[in-house]
Design goal:
Number of strands: 0
Helix content: 55-70%
Structural class: mainly alpha
Radius of gyration: 17 Å
Bound molecules: zinc ion
Shape: globular
Number of helices: 5
Strand content: under 5%
Distance between the termini: 46 Å
Order of helices and strands: HHHHH
Length: 153
């Protein structure tokens, strides 16, 4: 039974992170955190973006949860940390690899779900300033973007 609870904690932490990421994107990155996020909306030709720091920042709660969880004999915090880690991997894979094509593999991806996520995220990228943003989420986006006729790209 414990294993089912642990798996449920991982899944809950994973999807809670979609909310945390949406919230941080809307209320941190597009407000006082804009200095680190701006070069993601207005790219330079550098291989790395200041925005990439957020991946390291979000690794901290994952690491701390796992660290304290292990020290307590693998209590629930360990599984929260694992859920955050898995979300981070999913976010980087979807955002950097699938959507922004940073390693040149995007055109191999035809899956309807990923195409919908990409349409929604490109709607986000239409805005070059911190104000008037839309679609701050990553894995959960408004239903209209899954229709083939949705704008963008
Ligand atoms: Zn943004
Ligand atoms: Zn982006």
């Amino acid at each position: 039974m414990q294993i089912a609870i642990n798996i449920a904690i991982v899944i809950a932490a994973f999807w809670a992170m979609e909310f945390v990421a949406w919230f941080a994107h809307k209320y941190v990155m597009h407000t006082f955190g804009w200095a680190l996020h701006e070069d993601h909306h207005n790219p330079t030709d550098s291989a790395f973006q200041k925005n990439d720091w957020f991946a390291l920042i979000f690794a901290i709660p994952s690491w701390l949860n796992m660290q304290f969880g292990v020290m307590a004999g693998f209590d629930f915090r360990f599984y929260i940390g694992v859920g955050i880690l898995l979300y981070g991997i999913a976010y980087v894979t979807v955002h950097e690899v699938v959507i922004h094509n940073r390693w040149g593999t995007r055109n191999k991806i035809t899956n309807w779900y990923f195409r919908g996520l990409a349409r929604a995220h490109f709607a986000h990228h239409k805005h070059k300033t911190k104000e008037d943003g839309e679609c701050f989420g990553m894995l959960i986006v408004p239903f209209k973007f899954f229709k083939r006729t949705a704008t963008s790209e």
